[in-house]
Specification:
Keywords: Membrane, NAD, Oxidoreductase, Transmembrane, Transmembrane helix. This protein is of the alpha/beta class. The chain has 23 helices and nine strands. The strands form two sheets. Strands 1-9-6-4-2-3 form a six-stranded parallel beta sheet, with helices on both faces. The protein has a three-stranded mixed beta sheet with strand order 5-8-7. Helix 3 (about 60-85) packs antiparallel against helix 4 (about 90-105) and helix 20 (about 550-560) packs across helix 21.
């Protein structure tokens, strides 16, 4: 880090010296061009120094060749700059060779291809139009030289632009610097031609230098970014796809306040629930739950209350962890067979998600569940829907999402629609008192993941930030207490509230790659969702790195995991360490033994498909980069 910092300082000093020499030349243009030569020479020295000092740090042969040919190009441009005024043709030839070497250097970052040819020809065609149609130009015998030069500089600019738009291997910072340098060179040459071959009165010579010196500096400076430009030869997300993802997310964020988000109305008891049903003239409902819930007698009070209040309760108890398409279809047929008019979901996220998908199929009988994948594919009010969570974690009782497994394809997919938000919810802590320790731990970590991913994403609002902060604080204060002292009623109440608040946060601000990866593992290997989130969360936060320092650091301080006077980086690291220790203390091991090397590409494809462009993550990753993350998670 100290070496890089010193190089930045050196480049800044050179920039000041170059600017000073340039200014001296502009105000003393007749002193044998000594200041101009000094300024141009400084670029060459800077490029050579950057190349020599960083050569050992370049990770691949292509990086070394880019830097080498960049320096060679700078040498020819220096010679061309010195000779151009007195020996125009010689100077132009040397400059042209310099640009050719720049094109060669760019080609080491991405091989020359048809896109480069098309881009170069388009820019060259524009140049020809300017040259042929502007009446003030008078090239005389130099016309062929100008045409060849225009051809070369057009392809230099075209190549740099296609690298920026389509290269997926190198950092956008490096590619943007190269494109900026090529553009400035192009504008500098345009000013030179206008100044030398027209009678226009504008001081094109000064404008030429105003573009030329920054162009030289930017391309010399780009060498600094070579040692951080390639990440293990992994194909990165293309610039165009990144722009598309961010534009999609920005548009969604803009319309966020206009969308029909709502919270379920909280009911205090089963008696209140029955009163709501009676007020709506509903006397028949389907209870979507699991056999485990029935065996644990968690549904007894609900069943007894409905019986006393003369509500016919038809029990569908076939829900399993990670509800499948076939379970949803069975639930739908069960609902229709019993002529029910309301849906009651009792259980964890699986039961509530199954009930949501069942409701969607009831109101959209002609649309398969697979076709509801994604965003706003239901758009029709569900039957009266009451959610009663028996775990504190999924937040499904307040979200617009249902996650369903395609058992034939081993693929989990989300359905997101405002109509899936339950109309009512009952938060009864007594249902969570007998939860097994393992389930308390993993569902609690699920809630923490919801809160954190909603908070560090790029589509937060004042409301979702507040929900995430309150949820995170409650979880930090109560989750381990629930784990070690399961009968603590106050801690159980707080965890249910935290889950509800985290659900409110992520249903508006969405989640991120942690969930996308967890869903893929659940679909392929039936890994419990909360367990997957718990294991992935600290790994993903470390990979995000500095992109989450500010937000996660602030959240750490709110949760009293870091002191107010500590840097965001330190606070962020403390939060990640807390998550790792909490996992360890609750018996959650690191990594996944289930992941098979031959499945990684398929898993990454599914995660990429789910997350991009919808999830407003702190940092975008390509499918290939996601594959590397799966490799980190594999044990």
């Amino acid at each position: 880090m100290e070496k890089v910092r010193n190089l930045y300082i050196m480049n800044a000093i050179f920039a000041v010296l170059i600017a000073a020499a340039d200014i001296l030349y502009i105000y003393n243009p007749n002193q044998d061009y000594i200041y101009k030569t000094i300024a141009s020479g400084l670029f060459l020295v800077l490029g050579v120094l950057n190349f020599i000092l960083l050569f050992k740090d370049f990770k691949t042969k292509n990086l070394k060749l880019y830097a080498l040919f960049n320096v060679i190009a700078l040498i020819f441009c220096f010679l061309g700059d010195v000779l151009l005024i007195d020996y125009f043709i010689v100077g132009a030839i040397l400059f042209g060779l310099g640009h050719v070497f720049f094109i060669i250097s760019f080609s080491f970052l991405q091989k020359f291809n048809i896109k480069d040819i098309v881009a170069g020809l388009i820019i060259f065609a524009i140049c020809l139009c300017v040259i042929l149609l502007v009446p003030d130009f008078d090239f005389g015998e130099l016309f062929p030289v100008i045409i060849v030069y225009a051809f070369i500089i057009s392809f230099m600019l075209g190549k740099s632009i296609t690298n920026l738009l389509f290269s997926t291997k190198y950092s956008n910072t490096l590619l943007a610097l190269i494109s900026l340098g090529a553009l400035l060179f192009f504008l500098s040459d345009l000013m030179l031609v206008l100044g030398r071959f027209t009678d226009l009165t504008t001081d094109f010579g000064t404008l030429c230098l105003a573009f030329y010196y920054p162009a030289q500096f930017v391309l010399a400076y780009s060498i600094l970014f070579m040692n951080q430009s390639e990440i293990a030869s992994v194909k990165k997300m293309s610039f165009i796809r990144k722009v598309y993802c961010r534009i999609f997310q920005i548009c969604f964020r803009i319309i966020l306040p206009l969308l029909p988000y709502r919270e379920p109305k909280l009911l205090d008891s089963y008696q209140d629930m029955c009163k709501v049903l009676k007020d709506k003239n509903i006397n028949s409902a389907v209870l979507v739950t699991s056999k485990d819930i029935l065996d644990l007698k968690l549904a007894d009070e609900l069943i007894d209350t409905c019986k006393k209040e003369n509500i016919d309760l038809h029990i569908f108890s076939e829900v399993l962890p990670n509800p499948t398409i076939s379970q949803v279809e069975s639930a739908k047929e069960f609902y229709l067979k019993n002529n029910a008019s309301a849906i009651i979901a009792l259980g964890g996220g699986s039961a509530i998600d199954c009930a949501k998908a069942m409701g969607a199929r009831i109101v959209k009988p002609k649309k398969s569940i697979q076709k509801m994948k994604g965003l706003l594919k239901v758009r029709k009010r569900l039957p009266t829907f009451i959610a009663i969570p028996t775990t504190a974690g999924t937040g499904s009782e307040t979200t617009l999402a249902a996650v369903i497994t395609d058992e034939k394809a081993n693929f989990k997919f989300p359905i997101n629609d405002f109509s899936l938000i339950p109309h009512y919810a009952i938060l009864d802590y007594k249902l969570t008192l007998n939860l097994p320790k393992g389930l308390t731990a993993t569902t609690g970590m699920d809630a923490l993941t919801h809160a954190i991913e909603a908070y560090i994403g790029r589509s937060t609002t004042k409301y979702t930030r507040r929900m995430s902060e309150e949820a995170s604080k409650l979880i930090v204060e109560n989750l381990y207490e629930c784990y070690t002292n399961p009968k603590n009623a106050e801690a159980r109440k707080n965890m249910l509230l935290a889950s509800f608040k985290a659900g409110n946060a992520f249903t508006r601000s969405y989640v991120g790659y942690v969930h996308a990866i967890a869903h893929s593992l659940g679909g392929q290997y039936h890994v419990a969702h909360g367990l997957a989130n718990a294991k992935i969360l600290p790994v993903m936060l470390e990979i995000y790195g500095e992109k989450v320092y500010k937000k996660l650091g602030k959240l750490a301080k709110i949760c009293k995991l870091a002191d107010e006077n500590e840097t965001n980086k330190v606070a962020c690291e403390k939060f990640i360490a807390y998550i790792k220790n909490l996992n360890k203390n609750m018996g959650i091991e690191e990594g996944f033994k289930e992941i098979k090397a031959e499945d990684i590409e398929h898993l990454a494809k599914n995660a990429d498909s789910e997350a991009n462009p919808l999830y407003p993550v702190p940092k975008l990753f390509s499918k290939e980069e996601l594959e590397e993350i799966y490799k980190k998670l594999k044990v």
